[in-house]
């Protein structure tokens, strides 16, 4: 402790050591949790999505929803490509697939704050590919899965 400073200024050496130990313990816990993962066997999935031969609008997304137990996984479709890798990938198995693409209507609607006006959007992809999807995918373990969706109106 620097000479001339009162002992109380530093809160006491014991308190400083306790705080330091607490911080170190917290960091070690976070590292151990982060290294453990979520315990789900995941498989990488990549693919192409088009509607009538063209890429979808900016903001388009794809979601894999498991038929059985397990978490859903999704990705943004950029251009006509999507990628789900590592801890953002789904597990192996059978999935229902939903594809959505917002399209601006050119109209304005009242925002959720009740004051500002915001652009209005509608779904560009037919319901048979999202709300009432007919799309399915079966993902295999131990390999990168390429699943393309060539959609038509």
How do the helices and strands line up, and which of them pair or pack?
Elements: H1 13-36, E1 45-51, E2 61-66, E3 73-76, E4 81-84, E5 93-100, E6 102-110, E7 117-123, E8 136-139, E9 145-146, E10 149-151
Parallel strand pairs: 1-9, 1-10
Antiparallel strand pairs: 1-4, 2-3, 2-5, 5-8, 6-7
Give a description of the structure.
By secondary structure, the chain is α+β, with helices and mostly antiparallel strands. Helix content is 16%, strand content 35%. The protein has one helix at residues 13-36; strands spanning 45-51, 61-66, 73-76, 81-84, 93-100, 102-110, 117-123, 136-139, 145-146, 149-151. Strands 1, 4, 9 and 10 form a 4-stranded mixed β-sheet that branches. The protein has a 4-stranded antiparallel β-sheet with strand order 3-2-5-8, with no helix packed on it. A two-stranded antiparallel ribbon has the order 6-7.
């Amino acid at each position: 402790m620097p000479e001339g400073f009162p002992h109380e200024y530093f809160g006491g050496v014991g308190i400083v050591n306790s705080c330091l130990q607490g911080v170190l313990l917290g960091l070690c816990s976070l590292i151990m949790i982060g290294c453990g993962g979520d315990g789900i066997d995941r498989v990488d999935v990549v693919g192409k999505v088009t509607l009538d031969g063209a890429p979808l609008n900016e903001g388009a997304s794809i979601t894999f929803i498991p038929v059985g137990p397990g978490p859903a996984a999704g990705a943004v479709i950029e251009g006509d490509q999507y990628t789900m890798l590592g801890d953002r990938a789904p597990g192996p198995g059978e999935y229902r697939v939903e594809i959505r693409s917002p399209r601006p209507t050119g109209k304005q609607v009242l925002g959720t704050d009740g004051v500002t006006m915001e652009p209005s959007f509608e779904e560009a992809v037919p319901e048979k590919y999202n709300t009432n999807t007919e799309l399915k995918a079966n993902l295999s373990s131990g390999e990168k899965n390429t699943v393309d969706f060539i959609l038509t109106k």
